[in-house]
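Case study 2.
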Amino acid sequence: MVEDARFEDGGERPLRLIAMDAQDLEVISALTQDAVFPITEMSWQPRRRRFALLLNRFRWEDRDKAASRNRPVERVQSVLTFSDVEKIQSQGIDRA
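Prediction:
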């Protein structure tokens, strides 16, 4: 069972991660695995060369605390931003 994080549960400091190399990207990939988002939450800003997604992801970093409190892992909204993007393409996405 999964439940959304409540505002009160956010007492911990928010995660602010940046990927500078392949190892960093592995960490971000692990934290965003199984994330979902509606197509309306994708943002392409060509002049700023930025692509961003508003994701609903599992709080994997809270897994141990959730288990110790006998509660499910929560989902939390997170922004994933890519900088210095020259072009974006998609395949197999229904934009209707």
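Residues 15 and 36 are 18 Å apart (CA to CA).
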